[in-house]
Design a protein that fits this description.
three-stranded antiparallel sheet, 4 helices, 2 domains, two-stranded antiparallel ribbon
């Protein structure tokens, strides 16, 4: 696949943003300057196409269409057991209490500062 769309031109930077396909993020390209002009026409087209990841896009198309022996690869996968980390409930409760206390102290400090600068009345 070698089709593309120019979706943005940044005149201040002399760059364009090109979208090659929906599976690939847009790419920013600085337009070459030749004889005090941006290259255009076939020269610009060839330059842009030089950035197209053709092999990668062809690979995605093949995979999307389906690979006949994908199950053979899937059969090689050995699932690792999920590690369950035991929760120390006392530690978790203490951390929650500490976080709540810190939040309360922060709020009280904010209120004190606002009152000090007469930005909050009683």
């Amino acid at each position: 696949m070698t089709d593309y769309k120019i979706i943005k031109f940044d005149e201040l930077k002399g760059s364009i943003v090109v979208r090659y396909s929906e599976e690939f993020p847009p790419t920013s390209i600085d337009i070459p300057i030749k004889d005090n002009n941006y290259i255009v026409g076939e020269e610009l087209d060839a330059f842009i196409k030089g950035f197209i990841p053709v092999n990668y896009m062809n690979r995605l198309s093949l995979i999307k269409a389906g690979i006949s022996n994908a199950q053979e690869i899937q059969s090689l996968v050995e699932q690792e057991p999920e590690k369950i980390i035991p929760i120390d409930e006392e530690k978790a409760a203490l951390e929650i209490q500490t976080a709540l206390w810190e939040e309360q102290q922060f709020e009280q400090n904010i209120i004190a500062i606002l009152k000090k600068h007469n930005l909050l009345s009683e």
